[in-house]
Amino acid sequence: MTDFYSILYANSNVSTGERFGIGLFMRVENKVYFQYSVKKLSLLKGLYNDAAYALLKSYLSSLQQEIAKDTNSMLPSNINNLLSQDYISYLSKYANNLITFSPPTPFNIKDPSNIFKRLYNKYIFQEEHITTNKKIEIANFVQKKLYPQIKNRVNINLTLKSGTIENLLFDTNVGFIGKNGSIVSGQPIDFAKKNHHLENNLSHFISLIKAFDEEERYKHGKYYIIGEEPSKDLDKNHAIWRQVSKKNFINFVPKDEINQIKDYIFENDVRPFTLNNQISPK
User: Is the pTM of this model over 0.85?
Assistant: First the structure.
């Protein structure tokens, strides 16, 4: 498939065609990049009624999560479906005319980080910090360096379904999960990503931990978050990282120290987590 990008427009008045660039998709070879501007969305709030604005905000957030989930899964079939003309058409209809997508524009520049920043700043919003690549780098690192060593001992990239685990309120993706009487699980997290996405990813994993801890048979599990300390220039991100790294129920592991996870899994005879109808492939 040809490399290309597509601009997401927030439509404020369908009858007059008034719209504003709010986000950017880009596909380069095997990777998909997406970001929307939370700042610009906030500035546009006055153009929408409360219900329309809430729908627009929810849609963009959900879209980013879905793309991040498919991208991090490393499954070519998922990635190849993203940013196709049919997929863009489907997304436009699903957004109830609040969002439209420009036709895919092909290009052949092979520096995705540079071209994404340039296009984003030109068409969407001038932002000092664009985090798209970091997320994929951490996920790729864990995918390549840790998962091949532990794949026979744990489940990799699975979604635990709400309603099948008591007190789990929503479907939650987990990087890896196994058990040795108690649960052993871990999640790679990019602490440099936008605050609302970072908080959402962390809250999902922490909610999963709490749900397991409330089941007698799974109490006192071993839980890992794999990541890197973000720049201190990102004040809120750094504060979140500091809080997480001090939690006594979470083991924070820098990505270059992941061998300790492998060692624990083998030394404690961890086995894949299996419970009927509670997990599904990512």
Answer: no
DSSP letters, 149-165, are HHTTTSEEEEEEPBTTB
Handedness of CA 81, 83, 85, 90 (dihedral sign): positive
The whole domain housing 120 covers: 4-128
Q: What is the DSSP string of 164-222?
A: TBTT--S-EEEEEEEESSSEEEEEE--TTS-HHHHHHHHHHHHHHHHHHHTSGGG-S-E
pLDDT at residue number 80 = 46
Give the C-alpha separation, 248 to 236, whole Å.
21
Of 128, 162, 187, which closes a domain? 128
Domain boundary among 101, 128, 155: 128
**Are residue 74 and residue 158 in the same domain, yes or no?**
no
Q: 193-241: per-residue pLDDT in tens?
A: 877 778 888 988 998 999 898 887 887 899 999 998 888 778 888 899 9
**CB distance 157 to 146 below 8 Å:** no
Q: Which residues contact 246 (CB under 8 A, 6 or more apart)?
A: none
The model's pLDDT over 122-147, given as tens digits with 9 standing for 90+, comes to 888 776 455 444 444 788 889 999 99
